[in-house]
Specification:
Elements: H1 2-31, E1 67-77, E2 80-89, E3 94-106, E4 112-122, E5 126-136, E6 144-152, E7 155-157, E8 165-173, E9 180-187, E10 193-203, E11 209-220, E12 224-231, E13 242-249
Antiparallel strand pairs: 1-2, 2-5, 3-4, 3-6, 3-7, 8-9, 9-12, 10-11, 10-13
Length: 256
């Protein structure tokens, strides 16, 4: 009887062992998901849910928000204004592939006139200008311009490569009639540089922005230069003293 009992017990244990193995295999094959940076759980030494630690996404509490240094609008033609904001990303090694923003113009009584939304990117430790052209205001004269960031894609670690572009000889002419800035972009690298956003900002003697314009350069071949021109239809509101040309390359979709 003792031998028979032991034999039955062995059968029972073997049966439950097989059931346990099958259940475990089913769990690991069909139910269990290893920790990841997209599982919605703070695990694997993450500093937040799916951020920090081994994840490329940076937790929001570790990010310094971009600084809006100033925002303004300028009449470009009758009934139309250009808007520009000067922004700084103070993070030394953090960037954003997509950031959405909004310009809003108001009249002297604070009544809303028009809004323009757009999208750009943020490069680590960079000051740059965001430009929107030809906001229609009709017969209303804008008094106040506001600029806000409305939505960010996840912040990620990214190294800021030294730009291969240099700006040569910006020259301002036609100040009393139709101002024009001519300059050249020089690509000193051994590869082509593509999709270059270039903004020009003009300042008066008090370092106040009095005009802005922008253009896009599709490609500059290796070790080559490209002439760029910015024009305005009417004179600036003050005497120009300095021009700033700001080329930008998106490191999230362009390599050089």
């Amino acid at each position: 009887m003792e031998w028979a009992t032991k034999r039955k017990l062995a059968y029972i244990l073997s049966f439950f062992g097989i059931i346990f193995i099958i259940a475990g295999a089913t769990y690991f094959l069909h139910i269990y998901k290893p920790p990841s940076c997209t599982d919605g759980i703070q695990n694997q030494e993450e500093m937040g849910v799916d951020c920090g630690g081994p994840c490329t996404i940076i937790c929001s509490n570790l990010v310094s928000q971009p600084i809006i240094l100033w925002q303004r609008s300028f009449e470009s033609a009758h009934g139309y204004y250009n808007a520009v904001a000067y922004v700084e990303n103070p993070n030394m090694n953090l960037g954003v592939a997509e950031v959405y923003y909004s310009f809003k113009l108001y009249d002297s009584r604070g009544i809303f006139i028009v809004e323009r939304q757009g999208k750009t990117f943020l490069v680590p430790n960079e000051r740059f200008a965001i430009f929107e052209q030809a906001l229609s205001v009709g017969e209303i004269i804008p008094k106040t311009t506001t600029f806000t960031f409305t939505r960010f894609s996840p912040w990620t670690k990214i190294s800021r490569e030294k730009t291969p572009l240099t700006v040569g000889g910006p020259q301002l002419s036609g100040m009393d009639t139709k101002p024009k800035i001519t300059a050249s972009l020089q690509n000193k690298s051994l590869v082509p540089v593509k999709n270059i956003n270039v903004t020009a900002v003009v300042y008066d003697s008090n370092e106040n922005a009095i005009g802005a314009s922008a253009t896009v350069v599709d490609v500059i071949p290796p070790d080559s230069s490209y002439d760029i021109v910015f024009t305005w239809l009417q004179p600036f509101s003050a005497t120009p003293q300095r021009e700033e040309i700001i080329p930008r390359i998106n490191p999230f979709d362009t390599s050089f």
